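User: Predict the structure for this protein chain, please.
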Amino acid sequence: MLAARAVAVGFALITAAKPMTSVAATTSSELRGLHGSASLDARSGSPWRRLQKLLAVPGHVPRRVNDLLLLRPDTDDQSEPEEKERSGNRHVVFFHGDIQNFQEEMALQPEGAQWLSWSLEQVAVTLGRRFPNRYVWVVRASRMYLHKFSCYHNFVESNMFGAPEHFPYSADFGAFRHLRALLSHGMERAHLPNPLQPEGGADSIPSGFSLTLVGFSKGCVVLNQMVYELAGARADPQMAPFVKHITDMFWLDGGHPGGSETWVTDKQVLKELAVSGVSIHAHVTPYEVCDPMRAWVGREHGHFIKTLEEFGACPSKKLHFEDEPPSIENHFRVIQEF
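Assistant: Here is the predicted structure, written as structure tokens:
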């Protein structure tokens, strides 16, 4: 959550950040804005060649839409045929933080241009290296207030700055229901073989389907909402088979402009996560969990980990860059290091 540490009446301002020294060179073809599902770059051998932009993909409610980026697996790699077959329907979904956007839009904003190496396209390529042989989906927040504040109100009730108001599972609205329909419609739009069905029980889940969820900074509010929905979703015969295929959830330096619930702390809710069978990963930096101006973030993170362990879960956890001063640069770098 790239916000100033003083929060008044729910308002947060993006910190004036120094330019990164490691900003990757960006070519004109990479900045070119394309529509529909057109490839961002046709150069042979480039991961950009495998990246598609899918605009206004509907979720469970047709008027609730999100733009998606899809990075297809590299079919030219050296994987054995059996491994390719086994990984053919494995998916990773990433929810980004503040400032992050499509490259061509970030380049037009003074505060965004200095962070182009963390654009949605660049992150998709980074995740493709982290999770080879998988489809990588980057979900763009449905609203970017002032071109800065990511708001995931299609997944969780949020104010204009993206601070969430969490709620239990609903058969009509929620993070799981929206994500499932979004992936289904995205797969159909991208003409993927054997797509996920938008609704239904076990027979609607394609063979070999698995799902890894990754939230970074503000994007962690979506994962938190899913944790609040987990008990109800697992009890719903129409949703339970989908939830069962979520193998891993990664929280990467979660943060948002609200004054609490940066991490889930409700014990009953965390008990449901602990027994769900999902592998839990929490990667943080001093930027979020060691800030004396927002001491509750570190306390909530500690409570999140301790409670899960008390319920028998074994969450993997790491504090990155602990010997370096807190910085936005390292906050972003956790995307590379986790």
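Residues 310 and 323 are 29 Å apart (CA to CA).
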